[in-house]
Hints:
14 strands; alpha/beta; 12 helices; seven-stranded mixed β-sheet; Aspartate Aminotransferase, domain 2; Aspartate Aminotransferase, domain 1; single chain; about 375 residues
Amino acid sequence: MRSIYLDYNSTTPVAPAVQEAVLPFLAEHFGDPAGRHAVGRAAREAMDDSRHLVATLLGVDRDEIVFTSGGTESNNLALLGMMRRLAPNGRGHLVVTALEHVSVAATARYLQSRGYELTVVGCSRDGVVDPQDVENSLRPDTKLVSVIHANHEIGSIQPVRQIAHLCRQADVLVHCDAVQSVGKIPVRPSELGVDLLSLSGHKMYAPKGVGALYVRRGLDPVPVLHGSADEAGLRPGTPNVPHCVALGAAAGLAAAHLDKARDRLAMLRDRLETLLLEGFGDRLRILAHRAERLPNTLAVSFPRVAGDDLLRRIPEVCAATDSASHSGSATISPALAAIGLSAREALGTIRLSIGWYTTEEEIERAANLLLAAWDSASA
């Protein structure tokens, strides 16, 4: 049984070119970048090169890139670091959206538990935040707005530029969680107008355990960890040189192939959507279909069946569900609840996310398997 991997929004395989770039830094180039000898210099130069590649992908300066362990740490550093810097007494206001990843949502709730005030802005049924709703949530004590660039479950892309423009007029900083969008579509902080932006390696064909935070020059977040002065004092500890090299290599690949890969992903996504609609007709609900979406993401709600049950019938299809049923009660993901799905619709939702290595044959086979499994499950 050959697996059909359609869960690229969860994690990606490490690209062969990225693997090749990393190998020397697992063996002969093992030095600490802080070392003042030849071995240390080789590691330091590799870190500098990788920082340059990440910065080039984003169109920012190299010294505005802070390496982290991934998107979760980047999001924590952005929210905790800036709120503690701008409102050290805990008397500040933070705005996030209902579509945020748990690493932003949970950090925001943690800040709320420590005395900060929090507003969560909702979205449309297609999973798009109205910039006017964000503007209406701003207050004189608002310090930071955090808005996801593209939702990981339904793929809807947010009007970050418009939101950032309104926030700039109110002298409020903006953080953007771009973990799902970097490497799939063009992402440039200067064009979006954001002050901080998070990304993660394992969403863009690098290993797990590495990411980065763009911090606009002049900002000074309070470090979450304390120790040495590495990463401009924001992330102490000996850097994970091999994984930082991997992130740089992945950023270079993304920059070189972005337009071609985006068009191919959109073609495959649209083909899968067409095949499913031909088989199900109007019984199938395509989530966020009227919104601008990530080119690789298709979220569908299957009628009269739970997504988990459907996927259990076709173990060769590797896809994701974000809601579950436990002991007769439904647990609905915050994003699916925010777009107004009922418990039944949410439980029937499956996210199918396509990647660089997905083939047209796999798309055809996945559609046929999903249709057959649904016929069997709903009979």
